[in-house]
Amino acid sequence: MRAPLANLPIDRLHDPALVRIAGKLATGERLDRADALSCYQTGDLIGLGLLADAANRALHGDVVTFAANQHINPTNVCVLRTTCKFCGYARLPKEQGAYRYTMAQVLEEAAHAADGLTKEFHIVGGLDMQAGLAYYEEMFRALKANFPHVHIKALTAVEIAHIARIEKMSWTDVLIALKAAGLDTLPGGGAETFSAAVREQIAGKKLGGADYIGVHRAAHQLGIRSNCTMLYGHVETLEDRVEHLMMLRDLQDETGGFLAFIPLAYHPDDNELGATLGRRGTATGGTDDLRMLATGRLFLDNFLHIKSHWIMVSQALSQVSLHFGVNDLEGTVVREKIYHAVGAHTPQGMTLEQVLTLIRGAGKVPAERDSFYKVLRTFGDVRPPAPALFATHARESLQG
Question: Whole-model pTM above 0.85?
Answer without folding.
Answer: yes
